[in-house]
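Inputs:
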Amino acid sequence: MHEWALAESIVMAAVEAAQKEKLKSITEITVHIGELQQIEKDIFLFALNEIAKQQKPTIKNNAFHLRTEKSTLICKTCGHNWKYSDMKKKFSETESESIHFIPEVVFVHSRCPKCGSPDFEITKGRGVVLSSIKGLR
Amino acid sequence: MEPRTSVIEKRLKNIKRIIAVASGKGGVGKSLVASSLALHLAHKGFKVGLLDLDLYGPSSHIILGVKKEFPTEEKGIIPPMVHGISFMSIVYFTEEKPSPFRGVDISNIILELLAITQWGSLDFLIIDMPPGIGDETLDVIRYMKKSEFLVVTTPSKVAMGAVSKLLTILIELKKPVLGVIENMTMKDASFIEEEAKKLKVGYLGKIHFDEALEEAIGNADRLAKTQVMEDLTKILRKVNL
């Protein structure tokens, strides 16, 4: 359950930000989940809620809002752009799992579908990002 | 907002010492020194981790003969135990294919590895660094604040030219430098020792060129019996390792 480690980073970052802003409680945390990381949403949400239980400032029940973000990959050589979902079927189970752990290994296991270049970039939908926090002072 | 940086300190909390084996130059034997140092400490009964951060050309797994091992998932990823060492490398995920990463990708991979790897409690975490003073070195300095540096060079003036630059920036940033190891020496010369003295960095000694070493690569038991390991053990005594 590698989702747990990422959930922990989200909660710790939210708590740090809330302490900086002197919030007494956190009421809403929005998290964007990049497509490439292929997070198991249910497991991730379960981990977020479990880790959130013992925090200061307190985190309200059901505070987490998860938004999935589609990926955009752009080739630096020919300018072609595509999504991870367009090419997902071409990966073996091991390759797909490796991308789940470290999204950048997509550069290792794939090429631009148009020109075959390995020199492309992930401009959207890489991994887990803490997008916003709301709370009470 | 980048959440991963918030959890790194927690992941490294139960590690007593972090030693980055570094050099300004490639091909001087950093991976050999890092792997041998990890083996040496594990043999002494310490709990040891080894993190290969040479993301373009990882080689610690070749030196240690790591083949089928893979991390297990448990609230993150737990590195497999190899010859008594918790060993983590990008190679588990790249399957020996070429790794065309740009700088931003390198930093992202390092952040991800540091955020999700559950080392548990360790006496030592050894880092096999890539050459130079690029993203990996800057990220280790930034995120692994208690890291100490063990710097490797060969007797070459060319190698020491680049190594001096790494040492200069480590001194400028007030990072602890355990000292300089001179690897692959073939004759008695004092050039590296003098250069280290100029920079006020400890010169730890020589590892002699060992013709039999290549046959021990991939076999940790044989590696432990090489001239390299004998020389390294003498050197490490000087810094109480």
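The first strand of chain B starts at residue 15 and ends at 22. Flag for discussion at group meeting.
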